[in-house]
Amino acid sequence: MLATIDNPSNAVEWAIAEMINQPDILNRACEELDQIVGKDRLVDESDLPMLNYIKACAKEAYRLHPIAPFNVPHVSIKDTTVGGYFIPKGSHVLLSRPGLGRNPRVWEDPLIYKPERHIVNKDSKVVLVDHELCMLSFSTGRRGCPGIVLGSTMTTILLARLIQGFSWTAPSNGPNSIDLVESEGDLLMAKPLIAQAVLRLEPHVYLELM
Ligand code: HEM
Q: Which residues bind heme per the record (predicted)?
């Protein structure tokens, strides 16, 4: 339950907060949805393969805002060497998620939310998992997450529906940007996102959900 509900909701909360502060990104995501899905029906699972930019927005949230500082601990079952480091049998191995996702030797402007970085060329298909471990969303290998397809689908459809269904801005009675500070104990938003959502589709479209 923790993995399946908290991972997508944390990623989507951060993604929308970041996008409110960078309206060009939000507009580009809306344009993709309007072009591929239109405004007469809600985005559906069958649309997801075509929503490359939305997926890049979700992946960027996983890179920059992992839900926890470390991956699940593992113990090495034999002596091994990884990246030039000797890891003796019995070592407790912890992977730092921000250490990977915000590594300046791997990512340009690592602290900036920039979904475009995941779209290498116009034919590239964005996937939320990174088997190269340049970032850690689902991890990889034999103990990697077996729920990649379901987890990716849940994250992408949640983000896509919230962006398609509503125009998002900072609340009108406060500063016009979202405070993107993370909490000290973990990496969640220090202040849960409060934003203004205005319907952007015809009322009959929302009735599909009832
Ligand atoms: C967006 C959602 C999800 C994310 C980001 C996520 C991420 C992860 C991560 C990072 C691990 C640890 C991998 C490791 O230790 O190397 C993990 C393990 C696991 N996940 Fe997920 N997960 C998600 C959704 C799901 C779903 C939907 C399921 C099942 C339906 C699932 C089932 C599991 C299981 C069973 C493990 C333990 C695997 C093992 O230790 O062998 N996860 N997940």
A: 145
